[in-house]
Design brief:
Order of helices and strands of chain B: HEEEHEEEHEEHEEEHE
Low-confidence stretches of chain B: none
Structural class of chain B: alpha+beta
Number of helices of chain A: 23
Strand content of chain B: 35-45%
Shape of chain B: globular
Distance between the termini of chain A: 94 Å
Low-confidence stretches of chain A: none
Largest sheet of chain B: 7 strands, mixed
Mean pLDDT of chain A: 94
Number of strands of chain B: 12
Oligomer: heterodimer
Number of strands of chain A: 49
Largest sheet of chain A: 7 strands, mixed
Mean pLDDT of chain B: 94
Strand order of the largest sheet of chain B: 1-12-2-8-11-10-9
Helix content of chain A: 10-25%
Helix content of chain B: 10-25%
Shape of chain A: elongated
Chain lengths: 985, 206
């Protein structure tokens, strides 16, 4: 193919060729190229197929708004779909594949859709694939998805690292064109902390794309000199390759930094992208303006481009899209393109101006056809010319050209300023929407604020930088504005579409929305622009209508006899341009998805061969298998050892709170439904906490360590919630109480020692008298372990055995556990895990998470006697509600399969024997199950309607989800040692 | 003797993953940060009893020559530092960590004015220092750590990698993170992942 690289000029490095592949063919570009400019330089105009009609498409823009040239970049796990070739910097080994075509870009079978275009109008899918209903999921949707998709997501894990970071500044300057550069310089010189961010690979914005003269030198030179000064300022941080994508409350801006998207593989240890939250006192929005396409027949053909994009390719990348241009414009911009293209030695066939004639400097020797429109672009893969219709004429003239520059005017890039919900303001003179009238914390400036001349941008930028620094508390004045040549005045006459078009004219390129679709939507009754967007998909997709939205509003206005400001715009929302899921995830993926909490006994548990399970964020030892044992065999052996002799278990995950103060007892009395006034120092008591609504919240123990000093334990699951609850109650409800409390969950390694020989083992490591008389059931006291470790011992039991919980400072946990194992070896001591713990508590009918499930009251669980009638406490009033006192509630029972080898499962429902399975007949459900080593069969706890009256009844277990039905006998919830003889042993 | 033995057999937090050495990128200017564990360390939560904050301040001044620091601040005198940790709540920190030593010392002087709770082994102190320490921390906390905003001696209660931390700048470019012990490994893994691009050195305990 012909090389389209110009012999001179541009910001590319002709000495550094770069190899890349596109659709598996090898190409060469130059350092400084984007993928789009490199493809153009190689004469590749065809870059994509369109979404719906599979029409051939080329690049339209040279920047962030590109709707067409979307590609898959990278291989395997690094593949990024829908990458804009205009934003992809070229690097050695870049691997790009076109999308949305089959079998190839040049020959795409999907293009037959175009032949049937008359039926694929807006709303086609909504209307056509409604019947038969079952076909939608099975037939239509998969077909449509394949035919009308964008790029493919990779199904392999991304090997690169992503991260997030926070930044703070006095002044954030967004956009590095003339206004942004001056703003950053003014704020920087004033001493403000400045962050200067731009989505481009180089800072300089539009100055990199235009032929300008500033202070007697080129625009490029002005950029270089200004950046050099900014770089030297220690208070200024330059952030190229950083897209500020959203404006949020608190003047927080979201930004995506493409740290290593310009290399094939990021350097070792570096992230590929970084997601920034920038907290700015003030921001200057110098985001420039986006050139509107014109809507005319064949405006989507490869080679029809924004006039400004053509200047960028010619001036910055030294690339021309073709050999002979034609310019179609309704404003001044087209003339500038004609001049720049001519200056690069490329022929310009004509300027077609929809206005009666502008005042612009005419490009020498180029015919100007005023009061005329292009009705059709001619040519298939390559453009051969355009049909031009002059005002009043009835037949069009053909003008030969192989690329078309179009300019429909300018849309200030106002997205960020509208992210908080304020509406943009219509400016009739410039035919564009300007930022909302008031944007506290954000100063729109330059083209983004409607200044469309260079001198104005430089001047306003300087003033905005000084103003922002001033508002941030710095003494600042505008800096001197460099000289520029006389500006060309901007004038425009809106042209929302070419009525006389003789071929399909596109409003939204990415979504294949045509000129006909929008009036059709209006005729269907969708006459608000938001509804038009949903009905036609105009303005959806990766570009979110950056090129199409205002034209769509203009066309809808004409179709419905309203004005553009009456129509307004669709809602601007973050993100300004797409942000990868990787960046949103940051470092928090796979095992780092959430933090992992380890107990101080983790090392010991590992030594003992523990299998760990996740319990919330915690890793807990679930069981300790010996060779050949599965979980059930291990847990069974552990239970038997505890019930017959002794075992130890890591219970460090229990929430622990230290409570002190003159009103500590009063606080406990209000928090718990049972009373603590009679709890003497040296004693522990089981406590129940209710929610305000009277349902059970949490259970645990409260130990009275010394007068006015308590140690509270909570369940593992509710540790954080209970702490927050206490803080809320104290701070909001009873600030008058003299209490101090703090979490000590992590300070203590807590070991349960349980079994008939528990005392004998503990006596070998603790000097204090542990005899029943000295240290009875529910004792709580300070002890010394191993002759020197200050510890606390509690005689409490979850297993129903003679049991203790021993707390030692965390560093000592592993050592003390090892010591207990060696001192207990003569008793056959075993470590036991959460499984054995759970089996034993179910055998004893002790409630846990399955029963404390937010729907139960103390009475439901047989704990009604714990509810004090002599004091007020949280949950008392609401707990008196009729429904909570009703006699037909589901209450705690035990269930035992009639056939002992039948396996119960938690969640199964209960039905009266013989009853049909229905919601009306539902009698309750199974909450916890275990295979009981003591009963040698499955047992369960359940919540059963009027359960306490039904002990001995045979009921049905119904679990069709797991295809399980059986008969069970309703029993007392305590299956083992109901007299609690062992507890006191 | 037994008491001595009990102190030598203590586990060191992060023991499983903290190995001295140079890691990550190796630039010409040396590691961007160094990471170190302070252990053993004595940490006691000091909570003023109701209406007794002024008396507590006086007791600290008389007993230790220490002023009670205001929100976001810390004070230090000789071997004892006080760091603000919430309304009328502070962390007292001292080198050395024999069980209960600091708690006993403070109890003797402050029991009338404050509730004191030993947290020495419930919190892990990770020190991160060096020219890129702020850059590493900025990947985790929303606190502005610019030298003009967060000076040596300042503290903050914040969050990093979904974990609550107590952050202090103990000297210029030297930051100390106090984290609940159970989260310490997770937080350390996050820190070294974020530090890798600048190169980091893990320094063994003295």
């Amino acid at each position: 193919m012909t090389s389209r690289r110009l012999a001179q000029g541009g910001l590319i490095d002709r000495s550094r060729p770069i190899r890349f592949t596109f659709d598996h063919k090898s190409f060469a570009g130059l350092a400084g190229d984007t993928l789009a400019s490199a493809l153009l330089a190689n004469g590749r105009m065809l870059m994509a197929r369109s979404f719906k009609y599979h029409r051939p498409r080329g690049v339209v823009t040279a920047g962030a708004s590109e709707p067409n040239a979307l590609m898959e970049i990278g291989e395997r796990g690094r593949r990024d779909a829908n990458s804009r070739a205009t934003m992809v910097e070229l690097y050695d080994g870049l691997f790009a594949v076109s999308q949305n075509r089959w079998p190839s870009l040049a020959f795409d079978l999907g293009a037959v859709n175009g032949l049937a275009a008359s039926i694929f109008v807006a709303g086609f899918y909504y209307k056509t694939f409604m019947w038969p209903k079952s076909f939608w999921e099975k037939v239509y949707e998969p077909l449509i998805r394949r035919a009308a998709g964008l790029g493919r997501a990779s199904h392999e894990p991304d090997p690169d690292a992503y991260e997030k970071a926070y930044a703070h500044c006095d002044v954030l300057v967004i956009g590095s064109g003339p206004a942004g550069l001056m703003a950053a310089l003014a704020a920087g010189r004033a001493g403000a902390r400045v962050i200067f961010a731009d989505e481009g690979s180089r800072l300089g914005g539009s100055l990199l794309a235009e032929r300008e003269e500033i202070a007697g030198d080129s625009g490029f030179a002005f950029v270089a000199a200004t950046l050099a000064e900014l770089e030297a300022l220690p208070n200024v941080t330059l952030m190229p390759r950083t897209t500020v994508f959203g404006w949020f409350d608190g003047n927080v801006f979201g930004a995506l930094e493409r740290v290593n998207k310009h290399v094939a593989v990021p350097p070792a240890h570096e992230p590929v992208e970084r997601y920034w939250r920038i907290i700015a006192k003030q921001a200057v929005m110098a985001t420039g303006a986006e050139e509107r396409p014109l809507v005319f027949g064949g405006n989507d053909k490869p080679g029809v481009m924004q006039a400004s994009a053509i200047r960028a390719y010619v001036n910055r990348y030294a690339v021309t899209p073709g050999a002979r241009a034609v310019v179609f414009t309704n404003n001044s911009s087209g003339y500038r393109t004609a001049r720049d293209v001519l200056a690069a030695g490329i022929d310009v066939a004509a300027i077609i101006d929809a206005r009666d004639g502008g005042t612009e400097t005419h490009a020498a020797g180029v015919p100007l056809i005023a009061d005329a429109v292009v009705t059709r672009v001619v040519g298939r893969e390559r453009i051969t010319g355009v049909n031009v219709l002059k005002g009043g004429a009835t037949t069009a003239d053909r003008i030969e050209a192989d690329f078309v520059a179009m300019s429909g005017g300018w849309n200030p890039v106002i997205h960020l300023s509208c992210h908080k919900g304020d509406k943009p303001v219509w400016d009739a003179e410039r035919a564009c929407f300007l930022p909302p009238s008031s944007t506290p914390g954000l100063i729109p400036v330059g083209a983004a604020a409607g200044a469309l001349t260079l001198s104005q941008c430089l001047k306003d930028g300087s003033a905005a930088g000084a103003r922002a620094a001033g508002l941030a508390g710095f003494k600042a004045t505008s800096i001197a504005v460099p000289e520029t040549r006389d500006d060309e005045p901007y004038s425009i006459r809106p042209l929302w579409h070419v009525r006389q078009s003789t071929a399909k004219a596109f409003v939204d390129f990415q979504n294949d929305v045509t000129l006909e679709d929008i009036p059709l939507a209006a005729r269907e009754g969708f006459n608000s622009i938001e509804l038009v967007k949903r009905f036609t998909t105009s303005g959806m997709g990766t570009d979110q209508g950056k090129l199409s939205n205002i034209n769509a509003s203009g066309i809808l206005a004409e179709a419905t006899g309203r004005t553009v400001p009456e129509i307004g715009t669709t809602t601007f929302r973050p993100f300004y341009t797409p942000v990868s899921f990787g960046a949103l995830t940051g470092a928090f993926r796979a095992t780092h998805y959430q933090p992992v909490r380890k107990t101080p006994l983790h090392e010991w548990c590992e030594e003992m061969g523990a299998v760990f399970m996740e319990a919330g964020l915690w890793l807990r030892s679930a069981w300790f298998p010996k060779p050949g044992e599965d979980w059930r065999a291990a847990a069974t052996r552990e239970v038997m050892a505890v019930r017959q002799s002794v075992g130890i278990c890591d219970v460090s995950t229990l929430g622990k709170i230290d409570l002190q103060g003159s009103d500590a007892t009063a606080l406990l009395n209000r928090l718990y439904c049972n009373g603590f006034s009679t709890l003497q120092p040296g004693k522990a008591r089981y406590g129940l906490m209710l929610r305000e609504d009277g349902f059970l919240f949490d259970d645990g123990t409260v130990s009275h360590l010394a007068s006015g000093h308590y140690f509270i334990t909570t369940t593992t699951a509710n540790a954080g919630r209970v702490m927050s609850h206490i803080e809320f109650c104290h701070q909001a409800l009873w600030p008058e109480l003299g209490v101090q409390y703090v979490s000590v969950t992590d300070q203590w390694a807590q070991i349960a020692v349980a079994g008939p020989n528990a005392r004998r083992v503990l006596e070998r490591v603790i000097a204090e008298d542990l005899a029943d008389a000295a240290f009875p059931y529910l004792g709580a006291q300070a002890v010394t372990v191993a002759g020197g470790i200050p510890a606390r011992l509690f005689r409490i039991s979850f297993s129903g055995e003679l049991a203790y919980e021993l707390s030692v400072p965390a560093d000592h946990g592993n050592h003390v556990a090892r010591l207990l194992m060696s001192e207990g070896s003569g008793f056959g001591i075993v470590p036991y895990g959460v499984e054995a713990l759970s089996i034993m508590r179910i055998e004893k009918g002790h409630v846990a998470g399955g029963e404390l499930n937010g729907t139960t009251t103390p009475e439901d669980l047989g704990l009604g006697r714990m509810v004090s009638r002599n004091k007020d406490f949280i949950g008392r009033m609401m707990g008196e509600r009729e429904a909570l006192k009703a006699g037909n509630r589901d209450v705690l029972v035990g269930v035992k399969p009639v056939e002992p080898d039948h396996q119960l499962r938690a969640g199964a429902h209960l039905l009266t024997r013989g009853a049909v399975a229905s919601l009306d007949n539902d009698q309750g459900y199974v909450t916890s199950v275990a295979w009981s080593p003591m009963l040698r069969q499955w047992i369960g706890l359940a919540l059963l309607k009027r359960g306490r009256e039904r002990h001995g009844e045979i009921v049905q277990v119904y679990d069709d989800l797991r295809n399980s039905r059986m008969l069970v006998e309703v029993t007392h919830p305590c299956f083992y040692d109901r007299e609690n003889l062992k507890l006191h042993g | 003797m037994a008491e001595m033995a009990s102190q030598t057999q203590r586990s060191v937090p992060l023991g499983a993953i903290l190995t001295a050495g140079r890691y990550g990128a190796k630039g010409p200017d040396g590691p961007g940060v160094t990471l170190r564990l302070r252990h053993p360390l004595s940490i006691v939560t000091v909570m003023a009893r109701k209406g007794r904050a002024e008396a507590l301040a006086a007791a600290l001044r008389d007993g230790f020559g220490l002023a009670l620091p205001g929100p976001g601040q810390s004070t230090a005198a000789q071997d004892l530092a006080l760091r603000w940790a919430g309304p009328e709540q502070w962390l007292a920190i001292a080198e050395g960590g024999r069980d209960g030593d600091l708690h006993q010392r403070l109890t003797a002087a402050l029991a009338d004015t404050a509730s004191l709770v030993d947290q020495s082994q419930g919190r892990v102190a990770i020190v991160i220092a060096g020219p890129r320490a702020r850059a590493v921390l900025a990947k985790g906390t929303a606190v502005d750590l610019h030298p003009s905003r967060f000076r040596p001696g300042q503290v903050a209660m914040t969050q990093m990698a979904h974990v609550g931390i107590h952050l202090a700048q103990s000297a210029p470019d030297v930051f100390e993170l106090l984290v609940f012990r159970s989260f310490a490994e997770s937080l350390f893994e996050f820190l070294i992942a974020m530090a890798a691009e600048y190169g980091y050195e893990v320094v063994s305990r003295e």
